[in-house]
Amino acid sequence: PRQARCVRAEIARGDFAGRRKGHLMKPIRLMAGFFTVGIWTLLSRVMGFVRDIMIASYLGTGPVAEAFLVAFSLPNLFRRFFAEGAFNAAFVPMFSKKLEADSDAHKFATDALAGLSFVVLVLVGIAMIFMPALVWLTAGGFAGDSRFDMTVGFGRIVFPYIFFMSLSALFSGVLNATGRFAAAAAAPVLLNIFMIIAMVGANFMGAEVVVWIVWVVPFAGIAQLALTWIAASRAGFALRPAMPRWSPDMRKMVVVAVPAALASGVMQINLVVGQFSASQFENAVSWLFSADRLYQLPLGVVGIAVGIVLLPDLARRLQAGDDKGAKSAFSRAAEISLALTIPCSIALMVIPLPLVSVLFERGQTGPDDAAAIAVAVSIYGLGLPAFVIQKFVQPLYFAREDTRSPFRFALVAMVINAGLALGLSPIIGWTAPAIAATVAAWAMVALLLIGARRMGDVARFDAQLRKRLWRITAASVVMGGVLMVAHVALASALGMAGVRYIALIALISIGIAAYFVTGHLIGAFQMSEFKKAVKRR
C-alpha cells in the first residue's frame, strides 16, 4: 500500500519515472539522465572556455584582470565545498528517501530551504564586512597596491552570488531526486551566457567591461535560482520562504553535511598544495592550469553527470529495499562512466601534443609551453579514470548518509598528495604536483572500494559489467593504436595555421569511430543502448 501511494503521488506530480515492481528508474532512463546532464555540462564547459577567452581578450592580464579573477573566485570557492558539495551530499539522499517513503518530503525541503537561506545570509553578511581580510587570506600578494582595493570592491559585489547559487543547488537537488535533470543541469550555463553578453554589450556601448561583468554575476545567480525554482514548482515542490526551524531532520542533515564539507575542504587544500609546489618553478602554474582545463572537460561531463543522476536513484532504491535494483544502477553507472572515460584517458596519453598545440599554442604560448602542457596532460590522463571512479563510488556512501568515511579517506589522500608534491618536486621538478594528484586519486579509489566491501552485494559489479569491462579496455587500446597512426599521417596538417583545426577534428573523429566500431564488434557495448538513451533524453 505504501508503494502504491508513492506511485500515485508521483503520477499526480507528473514525475512517474517508469517505476514498476520496485524498479525506480530503468537502465535506459538512467542512461538518458546521464546524457541529459552530460550534454548540458559539456555546453557549460564550452561556454566557460569561451568566457575565459573573452575575459583575457577584454581585460588582458593586468591588475584589473587579476582583481576580477580573485574576486570572482571567492563565491565559487565557497560554492564548491558548501552548496554543491556538503549540502547536496546531505540533502539529496534524505530528500530522496522521504520522497520514496511518502514521508512529507515537501515539509523537509521547506525546512532545508529556510535553514540554508539563514546560514548563507549570515555567511554573506560576514564576508561583506570582512572582505579585506578574506582577500588578504586568498591573495596576500595584492596587499599594498591598487589590486587589493579593487578586489575588495569587486568581491563585495559578486559575493552575494553564493546566496542565489546555494538556493539554486537546493532546488536542483529536488529536481534530480524527482528524475528531472534538464533544468538543474542547464542552470550553470546561464552564468556564462550572462557574462558573455555583458562583455559584448559593454564593448559595444564603449563602457568599462569589468564593471559590467562584475555586476552581472549576482544577476546571473538570480536567473539560475529563478529557473530551478520554477522547474521545482512545476514538479510539485513550490517551496516558499519560512522561518528556520531546528528539527530532528535538520539536526541529522547538519551531522551528515559537516564531514562532507570537511572532505570538500580537503580537496581545496590539495589544490593549494599543488599550486604552492608548482609556484617554485617558472611557468609551471600556467602549464598545470592549462592541462587541468583540458582533462577537466571529460571529468566534468562524465563524472558530474554520473554523480548527479546516481545519488538520488541509489538513495531511493535503498530506502525501498531494492538492493538488486541498486546494484544494477551502480553497475550501469560504472559501465557508462568507464565506457566514456577509458578511451578519453588513452587519448590524453597518446595524443596530448596535438590536442594542446591546436587548443593553446598561440600568442604568448609557444611550442615549448605546449610541449610542457602536453606532458602534464598525459600524467593527468593516467589519473582520469580514478577521478571519475570516485564520482560513482562515493554515492554508495552518501546514499547511506555516510559522509564520514569519504572524509577519512580524503585525509589519507591529502597526506599522499602533499607528501609526493612537496617531496618529489626537488627531485623531478614541476611535474611533481601532477604525479601527486594522480597517485592520490588512485589511492582514494582504492580506499573507497575497500570500504565499500562491507556494503555487501550492492557495491559489487554485476555480470554484465564484468563481461564488458575488459572489452571496453580492449576497444580503447585499439583506438589508441589508430590514433597514433592517424597522428603520424596528419602531422603536417596539424602544424599548419588554419588547417590544424580541421586536422584535429579529423583526428578526434577517427579515434571516436575506431573506438565505437571496435567496441560494438567485440561486444563492449551495444549502440542500440546509446540510441535509446538519446531518444529518452
What's the overall average pLDDT, rounded? 77
Write down the overall geometry. Answer: globular
Estimated helix fraction = over 70%
Count every beta strand, where a strand is a DSSP E run of 2 or more residues. 0
Query: How far apart are the first and last residues' alpha carbons, in Å?
Result: 31 Å
Which structural class fits the helix and strand makeup?
mainly alpha
Task: Summarize the entry for a quick read.
The protein contains 20 helices and no strands. The protein is mainly α and 537 residues long.
Model description:
The structure is a single chain. Helix 3 runs parallel beside helix 6 and helix 13 packs across helix 14. With 537 residues, the protein is mostly helical. The protein has helices at residues 2-13, 27-59, 63-101, 105-129, 131-138, 146-158, 161-177, 182-205, 209-234, 248-278, 284-319, 323-350, 352-360, 367-398, 404-428, 432-452, 463-489, 491-494, 499-522, 527-536. It has 20 helices and no strands.
Describe the SSE topology.
Blueprint: H1 2-13, H2 27-59, H3 63-101, H4 105-129, H5 131-138, H6 146-158, H7 161-177, H8 182-205, H9 209-234, H10 248-278, H11 284-319, H12 323-350, H13 352-360, H14 367-398, H15 404-428, H16 432-452, H17 463-489, H18 491-494, H19 499-522, H20 527-536
Helix pairs in contact: 2-8, 2-11, 2-12, 2-20, 3-4, 3-6, 3-7, 3-10, 3-11, 4-7, 5-6, 7-8, 7-9, 8-9, 10-15, 10-16, 11-12, 11-14, 12-14, 12-17, 13-14, 14-16, 15-16, 17-19
Keywords:
disordered N terminus; mainly alpha; 537 residues; disordered C terminus
